[in-house]
Amino acid sequence: MMNKDQFADNHFIRTIIEDDLQSGKHQAIHTRFPPEPNGYLHIGHAKSICLNFGLAYVYDGLCNLRFDDTNPEKENQEYVDSIKEDVHWLGFEWAGEPRYASDYFDQLFDYAVGLIKDGKAYVDDLTAEEMREYRGTLTEPGKNSPYRDRSIEENLDLFYKMRDGAFPDGSKTLRLKIDMASGNVNMRDPVIYRIRRAHHHNTGDKWCIYPMYDYTHCISDAIEGITHSLCTLEFEAHRPLYDWVLDNIPAPHPTRPRQYEFSRLELLYSITSKRKLNQLVSEGHVSGWDDPRMPTISGMRRRGYTPEGLRLFAKRAGISKSENVVDMSVLEGAVREELENSAPRLMAVLNPIKVTLTNFSDGLTQSRSAPFHPHHEEMGEREVPIAPTIYIEADDFSENPPTGWQRLTLGGEVRLRYSYVIKCDEVVKDGNGNIVELKCSIDHDTLGKKPEGRKVKGVIHWVSAEHAAEIKVRLYDRLFTVERPDAVRGEDGAYLPFTDFLNPESAKEITAYAEAAAGNLPPESRWQFERLGYFVTDRRDHKPDAPVFNRTVGLKDTWQAK
Predict the structure, then answer these.
(1) Residues 320, 255 share a domain
(2) Cα gap 384→471, rounded to integer Å
(3) What's the burial of 489, exposed, middle or buried (CB within 10 Å: 0-12/13-18/19+)?
(4) 188 is a catalytic site residue
(5) Each residue of 351-370: pLDDT tens digit?
(6) Annotated binding-site residue? 36
(7) For the tRNA synthetases class I (E and Q) anti-codon binding domain, which residue ranges apply (predicted)?
(8) Where is the domain boundary, 174, 193, 212?
(9) Which of 357-366 are b and which e, b meaning 16 or more Cβ less than 10 Å from the residue's Cβ?
(10) Is the per-residue pLDDT at 510 higher than 90?
(11) Is 373 annotated in some ligand binding site?
């Protein structure tokens, strides 16, 4: 359940909004989240979703979901559907029906015709290479295209023929006539239409010309009555063009949108480039866009992260214009903190060693019940049965324990969680010297009470071999071994392939044992395995009769220790 305190941190955009509302500039705020449907959303988008939808929620305004679908060759319905699902899963509702930039293609075309009639746009025949040559550099002005002074009549004729398919792809463009000597290269007669014969997921084959993002976005904002158009900082230099277009077309809505920029999120030990994420998928480095190691929202969901955890992370990452570099531990910490309160507990043994309880007695040895959560009685309790054979973690036994060891050793005692104190009396090994069994005795006078005359400090988890459910457990770690995998240079100064730094230990699958309840759970059921971490039943592969758990995050950050 969301509340406004989840988005209560002050930042400069909130200050702008509050000033606008107080001054009467706007009676209400209207934001938008405008993803391009050319891939799955990632953690950077989650921050933007929480900002745009969160501001609308805090100020009782509206937020549109609008697909920036002006590049049909890279876009498809799968991405559209996944984006809708991700936004909903994060807990947000968009205003009305989802919108598409392609919904406005007719209006965009009409505005372009109007710009031509006003002498503010022209059809250009320069190739892409020639256009780069004419554009100039950051220190040198560009020069006018030889086609810049075509008559209005000729430009109109050519533009209509572009629309009607009279010219080959890439042979002509429509450009704004602004200033080739501008210090801002984005204002040097930017292209606003190009010829591209590509099937569009929304408009089919109606168009063979498509508008550019910078032209489309600001008009879409204006049509929808957006008040605050929030972009990441790389669009700051595009804001003059955003304003120029709106200043030079008839106002489609009385509310004039303004663009504001904030720093994009950079998550260490990860990448947030859709192109590079797509490369991971297409080259088979991961199992898909929702691989639990991926920083995609669908991947994090499958990993077991919660919407509440991601919203908490977005709040902690903050909104500013300064560099927003966040360590993976901050994300994991937010998820861990949320799961600590919400996830019920079970015991599971991932690296089992057999323990035979030599003095187990049906009439004497008893089981106890245990709460599913120590601080939430409403979650209820379960019976924790004991049997003559149990499993404990192999790591909880040592023949040569270090100083301060508080787990099991030969001749030593330890308490079984929710059960008795046991003592290891014998170690059984195979022919190669590997430990295959421990023979232990129960102190039957320690169920629910302390042993008399001695202290037993250690407590370990365990499961009954007779009652346990066999489960598959997928142990996930960070996908990359370095903080910035796409920013490492070789000796020659060139960037090395980011795939060189994939972590070979980022995923492995084991067979483990858990309390019986683990064998009858629905997909996406989140649990804490006591002393081990947080786990979730896999969204795709888990079945009640064939349980599959993904490790979401450990009980504490162990990466720094590595």
Answers:
(1) yes
(2) 18
(3) exposed
(4) no
(5) 999 999 999 999 899 999 99
(6) yes
(7) 459-538
(8) 212
(9) beebeeeebe
(10) yes
(11) no
- Whole-angstrom distance, CA of residue 408 vs CA of residue 405: 8
SS3 assignment, position 513: strand
507 bridge partner residues: 476
Considering the domain architecture, whether residues 84 and 205 belong to the same structural domain is answered as no
Strands of 99-100's sheet in order across? 30-33, 62-67, 99-100
pLDDT for 562 beyond 70? no
Encoded tokens for 431:
């022919």
Question: 371: alpha, beta or left, given left = phi > 0 and alpha = psi -120 to 50?
Answer: beta
- The DSSP line for 293-323 is TSSBHHHHHHHT--HHHHHHHHHHH---SS-
Indicate if the pLDDT at residue 559 is higher than 60.
no
Q: Is 448 exposed, middle or buried (0-12, 13-18, 19+ CB in 10 A)?
A: exposed
Which of 147 and 8 is assigned the larger pLDDT? 147
Q: Does position 43 have pLDDT exceeding 60, yes or no?
A: yes
Q: Sign of the CA dihedral 192, 198, 203, 205?
A: positive
Name the token pair of 102. Answer: 């392609």
Residue numbers of the domain that contains 32: 4-103+216-334
- Is 42 marked within a binding site? yes
pLDDT in tens, 303-328: 999 999 999 999 999 999 999 999 99
Does 285 count as an annotated binding residue?
Answer: no
Helix (H) or strand (E) holding 23: helix 12-23
CB atoms within 10 A of CB 291: 21
Q: Is the pTM of this model over 0.90?
A: yes
Q: Is 120 annotated as a binding residue?
A: no
Split at pLDDT 50, 70, 90, the class of 561 is low
Q: What is the mean pLDDT of residues 326-333?
A: 96
Two tokens at 533? 């971490």
One-letter identity of residue 186: N
Residues 228 and 364 in one domain: no
Q: What is the CATH number of the domain that holds 128?
A: 3.90.800.10
Distance CA(557)–CA(478), nearest Å, equals 12
Is 353 found in the same domain as 459?
yes
Helices 43-58 and 307-317 pack at an angle, to 10 degrees, of 90
Q: Which of 197, 256, 264, 321 is catalytic?
A: 264
Compute the distance between CA of residue 158 and CA of residue 359 in angstroms, rounded to an integer: 94
Mean pLDDT value across residues 31-43: 97
| Residue 363, in any domain of the structure | yes
Q: Any catalytic annotation for residue 36?
A: yes
Question: Is residue 143 flagged as an active site residue?
Answer: no
